[in-house]
Structure formats: C-alpha cells, structure tokens
Design a protein that fits this description.
By secondary structure, this protein is α/β, with parallel strands linked by helices. The protein has 8 helices and 7 strands, in the order ααβαβαββαβαααββ. Helices cover 45% and strands 21% of the residues. It binds S-adenosylmethionine (SAM). The site of S-adenosylmethionine has 22 residues, from α1, α3 and β2.
Amino acid sequence: MRPPIGQVEGKKQAVEQMFDTIAPRYDLLNRVLSMGIDQGWRRRVVALLSEDKPRKILDVATGTADLALASMRLQPEHITGVDIAEGMLEMGRKKIAALDLSDKITLQRGDSENLPFEDNRFDAVTVAFGVRNFENLYAGLSEMRRVLRPGGKLVVLEFSKPSHFPVKQLYSFYFRQVLPRVGSTVSGVSGPYQYLNESAMAFPDGKDFLAELTKAGYRTVTAEPQTFGIATIYTAIK
Ligand SMILES: C[S@@+](CC[C@H](N)C(=O)[O-])C[C@H]1O[C@@H](n2cnc3c(N)ncnc32)[C@H](O)[C@@H]1O
C-alpha cells in the first residue's frame, strides 16, 4: 500500500487509504521523525498570516488538524479543515473537542481538487505537507485560489531538498535510510515512509513550485526555506 509518485491516476484513492491506515499513529510519528521541528514550521506559517488578520481560514489537507489548531493564535472567526482521509479527520476532531474548540474549528471530508465551497469565501488558505500528495497539483492550486477572496493569502508548507554540503548528504541519508526504518517500526506498516521519502524527492520545490503557483494564477509568490532547506514555506496572493 504505497501510493504512486507524481501526478498519476489512482493516486488519490491510494493516498486516502494510506493516511486512514496510519492516522492513529500519525502525530506520534511526526513528532519522533522530525524531532519536534515540524511544530516550529507550523508556527512560522501562522506568523506569516499575522499581519493579514484573516477572519475565515481554510486549512486544506488538514489531517489531524495540527495547523488548524496552531492557527487559533490568529484569533479568527472560524477555521475550516478539509481532508480526503476520514481516519485523519477523526483524530483531529478528538483533539479539537478536547480543547473545547468544536465551535471554532470544523473539519469536513473534502477533496482539494474539487473544494466544496463557493468562490472567494476565505481570507486565507493554508496547507501543510499536503500539496505533495495531490493527484493533480494544478487543479489543487487553482481550487484553493478560487475559494480565496481577492487579495487573500495562500501559505504552503512542504518538504524541499537541501542543496548544500553537508546538509544535503545528511538529509538524504536520514530520509532514505533512517526514516523509512523508524517509520515502519513505529507504524507497523512499511509503505508510508518509503512513499514520504520518494514523494519528497520527486516534488517540484523552490523555484519550480513558485512557477506552479504563478501558472495557477497567483501573484507575489515567495519561498522561505526552513531549517537548512529541509522544508520551505511558500506564500502567494490571489
Ligand atoms: C502528511 S499529511 C499532513 C496533515 C496536516 N496538514 C499536517 O500538517 O500534519 C497529508 C494529508 O493530505 C491529505 N490529502 C492528500 N490528498 C488530498 C486531497 N486531494 N484532498 C484533501 N486532502 C488530501 C491526506 O489525507 C493527509 O491527511
């Protein structure tokens, strides 16, 4: 059960199935494998929205709602999270209920390539570690633009490939050798962490991703590498 790499038909169902399977252990694996760095990156995404003061936020590929929860710092009116994997959403709903935030954050099943919202509905759209999994990247980016209000901001957090010695070599070793082994031991399944490595390597990062954003109609696109370029945060305006 390993989804295909790149933009291939049938990827969506395979991705959904994979995330439903790992959902109960997703948060634990995230913290262990990234040594907690991932939460710092999510906080940076939120900081990049602080000046915009968005009232209505959409978190695409919300998973277990970590970014939606972090975005509560912005004191928005409402946050909506969408994801194709119901198992991930279930875990997210439990976290939201435990924090008594169910009236502020709503999670619903939805496909980023066919979002169930009217045009111009949100002040900001966020997506963390989601775009790499889309079956059709252009469709996903265009849909997120459609539901953003004019002048609204998209913020994307995604893995990228560090290009400098020795981080490039260390990262490659960690991603290829350590991560799939630890991932399969803790999760009990071998596919997902092999997929994580391969999909991150194949993903168009940096300038290539900025070109994808521009192609989908965004303006003022920026890329801010995080932690030696292991991840990058992109911003784009509708
Ligand atoms: C690596 S997880 C990231 C979850 C969360 N954003 C986070 O930061 O932890 C990727 C998520 O993307 C979701 N996903 C993949 N393709 C999707 C699509 N086409 N529409 C909506 N969600 C999708 C998966 O179900 C999964 O929950």
